[in-house]
Amino acid sequence: MSKRALVVIDLQNEYLPTGNLPLTGIEAAVANAVKVIADSRAKGVPVIHVRHEFAHGEMPVFVPGTPNVDIQPAVAPQDGEALIVKNYPNSFRETELQQLLDERSIEEVVIVGAMSHMCVDAGVRAAADLGYSVTVLHDACATLDLEFEGVQVPAAQVHAAMMAALKFGYANVISTQAYLTV
């Protein structure tokens, strides 16, 4: 078995119904992430938390120093768990994430978080490109409705399309239950 780490991407208050960027299904995704985090902690699998911030105020979301930038309490880091702060969708870009994984001889990353079509996608593709084996727990991720050239795309379809694309060439995409029973 490869050496594994759990990477929890951007499960922040900003995505709650009270935040500025509420996601469809965020509560269910966080509930599943809680299970996976507890399982990882019990098995000694490193849990690495990623928090998005827009450091220069370029967006009205993920503003440093505001409550919405905080990781949701249910999935907050515990003592000894790494916290990576990023300023781009890709969790590896200009962060110490790869160095941290390599120092721990990690070969496989399991990814949960938000948003499916943005930061989860960017992190999964980067991890695969860097040579890690990647597993995505699709029901521990969430996204939102999108619009493209007048076409409204419901969150469920956005999520399904992203998971299908990731499964096609970048990751093993499975449910939380399937992961926990392996």
From TrEMBL:
Asked if the record carries the keyword Hydrolase, the reply is yes
InterPro entries the record matches:
Isochorismatase-like_dom, Isochorismatase-like_hydrls, Isochorismatase-like_sf
Residues of the Isochorismatase-like domain: 5-175
Question: MF terms per GO, please?
Answer: hydrolase activity
Q: What keywords tag this UniProt record?
A: Hydrolase
Entry-linked CDD domains: nicotinamidase_related
Q: What is this protein called?
A: Cysteine hydrolase
Which organism was this protein described from?
Answer: Stutzerimonas nitrititolerans
